[in-house]
Amino acid sequence: MLARPTVLAETIIGSAIDVHRALGPGLLESAYDACLAYELTLRGVPFRRHVPVPVVFKGVRLDCSYRADFIVGDDILVELKSVDRLLPLHQAQVITYLKLLQLSQGLLINFNVTRLTDGLRNLLG
Description:
The protein has 125 residues and is α+β, with helices and mostly antiparallel strands.
């Protein structure tokens, strides 16, 4: 489900826009990841990066090597992409991560676009 951005989400989006303005589209996701981490740090926004996403199956916690790109302020999942276009699979990934991490809001950000707002989805879990 699409959501209206919260104040924290707006700060994250503003940070991502600044990164996109500086770098433009066409780089690997890892470059945007590193730059967004730096920008969030400059803004004093607390975050965790590359957070393990546990999979619990029949009561057993399994490490399946899933990693969320960012969890910001212990509230918002941020998943980055650098792809030709966002697919339903990308949104499903964010919604599933929200469920597994017991979070309610997620931002899906695709940096491989001319205008970052065209590659942005704000989702609720």
